TrEMBL record:
Residues 38-93 form the BED-type domain. It comes from the Eukaryota. Keywords: Metal-binding, Transcription, Transcription regulation, Zinc, Zinc-finger. This is BED-type domain-containing protein.
Length: 391
């Protein structure tokens, strides 16, 4: 503790003393003290104390220059040299030390050397974009550039095209790993697949996922393909996409089941697949290949029941659309909810018609604001889709 206080006092003195004081030869007592005292400043990781012509000097490890090194001289001048040392790999002394939390019971801290790696940080940036689905254009944003520069000035921020290239490299690397895993896997694989339509371009995509038990009896899942499927989505087109995927991953002889939505197109697609595969490699000659998605069947059952109150649901859906269409309407709705002292912070949410659970969430939230809809109907003449009481 004493050493730390002494070192802080030395650093706060700023630049070395007068010329006369600097040239003064240190006494034996000073010399002994400098030898015994433990140097706590991180500066001394880059300097070595030595006596030159009877004076204590600090020699830079990088360029070999000598500076005043007596304990009474402080360390500010040494830090200033490190900031502009031509032979020093890292310009900022703060980048030399990284404090890491060690996995110790007492939670003590320890110091370890830190070396900046441009390639490693680029990889982390690409993985961050993948994980959180950030837009590639974020590397062009001024705020992000300023943040990165202040955080790590040595990192050279990449362009969006380079970032895109880094992401593809990660994809190729992970794909190679997945190929090796599926190659070594000795068990059969259960396939789940579904179609997905993008909102903005209205294009259809197919997702194909494999599930299997590895050698350690652990359930593993791997997305094999996320691929654009051209229209029309006929049985032949869907079957061709699946066959190409199975052959690419060399799992056509390892299939156990294929789970798909319960629709006539998928039924016809499975029949086509059975004609394309060697049925002797399938379980029970392929009689167990087709599995109908239980979640989809449940959704069909619930949707059939909801059709009995379909008109009421439509009025509630139209009301939610009306009051969430613009920020001004949403604000007006929230103000009326506060005036009626409704203690709820949930926002109105629009459902997806084909997913019963999202319809349930929409209805349960709208029910809380039942009185708000009635109040606003008396004040807003353009609001004409007020649900009835029995709705």
């Amino acid at each position: 503790m004493v050493d730390l206080e002494v070192e802080e006092q030395e650093g706060s003195r700023g630049s070395p003393g007068t010329e006369e004081e600097r040239e003064q030869e240190p006494t034996n007592e000073d010399s002994d003290t400098s030898k015994k005292r433990k140097t706590t400043s991180d500066v001394w990781a880059h300097f070595t104390r030595k006596k030159v012509e009877g004076k204590v000097k600090a020699q830079c490890h990088h360029c070999g220059k000598l500076y005043l090194g007596d304990s009474t001289q402080g360390t500010t001048h040494l830090r200033n040299h490190l900031a502009r040392c031509p032979r020093m790999k890292f310009k900022d002394i703060r980048q030399q030390v990284l404090i890491k939390q060690q996995n110790k019971v007492d939670g003590t801290m320890s110091l370890s050397n830190y070396q900046f790696d441009q390639a490693r940080v680029r990889n982390k940036l690409a993985r961050m974009v993948i994980l959180h689905e950030y837009p590639l254009s974020m590397v062009d944003h001024i705020g992000f550039k300023e943040f990165v520069t202040d955080l790590q000035s040595m990192f050279k921020l990449v362009t969006r095209n380079t970032l895109k290239s880094d992401i593809f490299k990660i994809y190729d690397n992970e794909r190679e790993k997945a190929l090796k895993i599926t190659d070594k896997n000795g068990s059969r694989m259960a396939i789940t697949t579904d179609m997905w339509t993008s909102i903005n371009k209205k294009r259809g995509f197919m997702v194909i996922t494999a599930h299997f038990i590895d050698h350690a009896w652990t359930l593993q899942s791997r997305v094999l393909r996320f691929v654009y499927v051209p229209s029309p989505h006929t049985k032949d087109v869907l079957a061709d996409v699946l066959v190409d995927c199975f052959l690419e991953w060399n799992i056509d002889r390892k299939l156990s089941t294929i789970t798909v939505d319960n629709c006539s197109t998928n039924d016809a697609m499975i029949r086509l697949l059975l004609n394309k595969f060697d049925t002797s490699s399938l379980m029970l000659g392929g009689s167990m290949l087709h599995i109908r998605c239980a979640a989809h069947i449940l959704n069909l059952i619930v949707q059939d029941g909801l059709s009995l109150i379909g008109d009421g649901i439509e009025r509630i859906r139209d009301s939610v659309i009306y009051w969430t269409r613009s920020p001004k309407r949403r604000q007006k709705f929230e103000e009326n909810a506060r005036q009626l002292r409704i203690q709820c912070t949930k926002e109105l949410v629009l459902d997806c018609k084909t997913r019963w659970n999202s319809t349930y969430l929409m209805l349960s939230t709208a029910l809380i604001y039942k009185d708000v809809f009635s109040r606003l109907a008396k004040r807003e003449t353009s609001y004409t889709c007020l649900p009835y009481d029995h709705d």
